[in-house]
Amino acid sequence: MAVVVPKPVVLLLGAGSNIGDAVVRYFSANKFRVAAVSRSMEEGVDSGGVLNITADLGNPDAVPTIFTKVEAHWDVPTVVIYNAASRTLQLPNDPMSTFSITQYQHDHNVNVASALVACLFAVKGFARLPPSTLKTFFYTGNKLHVMSSPQALTFGMDKAAMAHCIWDCVVAYHEAGYKFYCTDERLSDGRPARELMSGEARAKAMLALVEEPAQQPWCYTLVKGKGYVNFEDLDKGAARNVDAE
After folding, report:
1. Backbone phi, then psi, for 92, in 5-degree steps?
2. How far, in Å, CA of 184 to CA of 236, rounded?
3. Can you list the positions of beta strands (E) in the chain?
4. DSSP structure class, residue 215
5. Cβ-count burial of 49 within 10 angstroms (0-12 exposed, 13-18 middle, 19+ buried)?
6. Residue 9: which residues within 8 A CB-CB, separation 6 or more?
7. Cα torsion for 85, 91, 94, 95, to the nearest 10°?
8. From the CB of residue 94, how many other CB atoms can be counted at a distance below 10 Å?
9. Which residue among 11, 127, 157, 197 is the one 20 to 30 A from 84 at the CA level?
10. What angle do CA 157, 160, 161 make, to 5 degrees?
11. What is the pLDDT along the chain (245 residues), one digit of tens a residue?
């Protein structure tokens, strides 16, 4: 009798439109069981076989329960994708005049605190998986950790914080074989993709990185239709600018 090997599990935290939808489609079509988390979806397994979990990622204490539910229903996730975000814009010429600590605490919980807890529980799970299993954590980033945008002051602070977290995890867990990525979609000239962001391009890149055994550049700058493009020299030069992008 042939041994049936269970499909690996991907946990998507922040299952919104665009990137979230594309991740569900791509990974489901490529032999993954998908668990998707958002505030608005109805909890349970949908007609496509996706395990939907309702949770508010503005509350970091909700994250451990998410991992417990996924493991109880299926197994330890081999891939964890943190795609949730909360952004409050400020006045571009006077961002401090509109700053609200209450609003920032909420945004920070979504962008950093819950992401950090998700990373923690991903690593705990990775340690319990067989050594031969490929294990990957993704954080949906953007160019804000290497560019100025005063109206997105606090959002940029949070993106920079998690970029640092990803970098440190790459260094710390390299020998264990765990992979970590901050995905950052750009236009071909290196500008941020913003409203032209392609969920399909990001999902395609993440799937390829999951299947690649070796750690690739942790700050994974990608361009739709091209894949990874190295913008390091351009980004270093931007640090000398006093103009926002």
Report:
1. -65, -30
2. 16
3. 9-13, 33-38, 44-45, 51-54, 79-82, 135-140, 178-186, 219-223, 227-228
4. -
5. exposed
6. 32, 33, 34, 35, 70, 74, 75, 76, 77, 78, 79
7. -10
8. 10
9. 127
10. 85
11. 555 668 999 999 999 889 999 999 999 999 999 999 999 888 999 988 999 999 999 999 999 999 999 999 999 999 999 999 999 999 999 999 999 999 999 999 999 999 999 999 999 999 999 999 999 999 999 999 999 999 999 999 999 999 999 999 999 999 999 999 999 999 999 999 999 999 999 999 999 999 999 999 999 999 999 999 999 988 887 666 655 55
Overall size of the chain counted in residues? 245
Q: Which residue has the tokens 């390091």?
A: 232
- Name, in order, each residue with C-beta under 8 angstroms of 240's C-beta and a sequence gap of 6 or more: none
Residues 110, 159: contact at Cβ < 8 Å? Answer: no
Beta-sheet pairing, 51-54 with 33-38: parallel
List of residues 6+ apart from 153 with CB closer than 8 A: 90, 95, 99
Residue with tokens 């750009």: 186
Residue 91 three-state SS: coil
Q: Which residue has the tokens 């000239």?
A: 189
Instruction: List CB contacts of 143: < 8 A, sequence separation 6 or more.
Output: 184, 186, 191, 192, 235, 245
Edge-to-edge strands, sheet with 51-54? 44-45, 51-54, 33-38, 9-13, 79-82, 135-140, 178-186, 219-223, 227-228
- Residue identified by tokens 């440190």 is 168
